[in-house]
Amino acid sequence: MISLSDYSAYDGIGLAELVARKEVTSDELIEAAFAAIAKVNPRINAVLQTMPQEAAATVRAGLPRGPFSGVPFLIKEILLHAKGVRCEMGSRLAKGFTPDADTELMARFRRAGVVLVGTTQTPEFGYNPTTETKAFGPVHNPWDLGRSAGGSSGGTGAAVAAGIVPLAHGNDGGGSIRIPASCNGLVGLKPSRDRVPQGPDYADALCGLACEFVLTRSVRDAAAMLDAVAGPDPGAPGYPAPPARPYREQIGIPPSRLRIAWTTTPGSGEKVDPECERAVHETVRLLESLGHTLVEDRPRYDWEAFLDHIHVIWAAFGVAIIDAVCAATGRKPGPDNLEAVTLTSYEDGKRYSAIDLVNAMAHCNVVSRAVGAFFEKVDVLITPTIARPPAPLGEIDQDRKGLSAREWTRQIFSYVPFTPLFNVTGQPAISLPLHWSEGGLPIGVQAVGRFDDEATLLSLAAQLEQAQPWASRRPLVHAAEP
Fold first, then answer.
1. pTM, rounded to two decimals
2. How many alpha carbons fall within 13 Å on the CB side of residue 481?
3. I want to staple 390 with a disulfide (CB 3.0 to 4.6 A). Which of 147, 318, 401, 432 is the partner?
4. Beta strands 429-436 and 211-216, pairing class
5. Res 276 pLDDT > 90
6. Which SS3 state, helix, strand or coil, does residue 233 take?
7. Which domain holds residue 446?
């Protein structure tokens, strides 16, 4: 039996290599994962469902020879789903909703060799940069139990950081992979639009703003999983240019000298926390020492118009997903099964017309063109991932009465003003755990690449990981603690 200390010290590739060398069995890894859940989840509340019988049956049936063969895995309860596994989307409205088939990405995760052991929390319908639901309670940050683990993939972020699994599923419509990566000291890659399939349920969820992938503790796990799951599925709306070589190979090649822009000023122009500024400044110095050219610069766009149009897209998609849940469950949305702001946003979304949505998407095109022109001059952009260290639990309250839908949008994007722009443009962006605050909280740094250029982004991320390793850092609550 592998100890929890040893189990949680490896990334996903490392655990798969142990299985391949027959130093440990898949059954032993699964047993370790459930032991880790039992040990830490009562304190962090990240994992919702556990599936010991299903996991054992998966191993008995024989695992594919993928890059993560035998590695325990968790999925977030929204968008992606697995056959016969509840997917309640953080909401009482969706209680008991159980899909009857795997989505394409779930099938690809299985072919990569992972073993599904459970599910993780999301805020109600994913519309929150923290994960604190009325249905299931708050997810606690393992670095500080009074702080947010981020959102909307907050359950995944906390579970991976606490050593329950080495990597797990997340998705990102405004920063929902990158935000919890920053809050929990992890690697969070948002791939280019359509790099990872969303079929058959969606073409481009959230009008193209949303994408699916994983949170990891190492860059190589992100690269290897992208190799495993990337590519169009039948009927996909499009696919970015495929990489010249596998991403796993690309990270072994140091990037050429890059022209890198950096900023600590968000589109809103508001001041960010000094710790987030310091994280970027230290990263700039590190990048210069690695031979890259750094320039202080950023894309310019109209923040207020951006907020107005993003709000329309989020509100309209919220109506669509809530109506779909109601059709599946026979329930009606109301204050007894939706949090206050969710219900307000649903009602607000009902007011918008088709032309409002078309105009919102047209504005996204204007913004994308301006940002695309900016990236003609630079290879990568460096920013803080979020505007301040992880928020105290209870501060960003999706069940707050009297808050308008528009006020909610402003509040949440004020907390995370750097991430949503790149959901609009569809560019790849990654949060890296390159800084910790004086109080010991993780502070992520975001790197953004040109559209379809995950190769440069991952190569640079691997270079930074080697120059300033983070693998030895562990939070207060961790599977390996005595």
1. 0.98
2. 15
3. 147
4. unpaired
5. yes
6. coil
7. 4-467
